[in-house]
Amino acid sequence: MKKYTGIVDKITYPTIKGWVFNKYSPQDEIDVSIIINNKKVELVRANLFRKGTKLHENHPTGRCGFQYILSLKLMEHGNNIIEVIVGDGSQKILNSS
User: Which runs of consecutive H residues, i.e. helices, occur in the chain?
Assistant: First the structure.
């Protein structure tokens, strides 16, 4: 059974946005790893307010969002694989490419 719930809402240059939280301990802040073409480029804290998660996803505060601004320097010519993974590496967030 998956410990985390979340989704990547948007992956369009220059922004990656989404939300994630621990279903069993939703008040805990979660870090997510941004992976581009199999290389970890950043660790981002998921603590931005997301109104919808409080209303529809049963998060107590709604502070479980994350955002990362992509740099063109990290992208390769052609197709790129972008993944968002819970910081401890245990679970890929839905809608990662």
Answer: 51-56
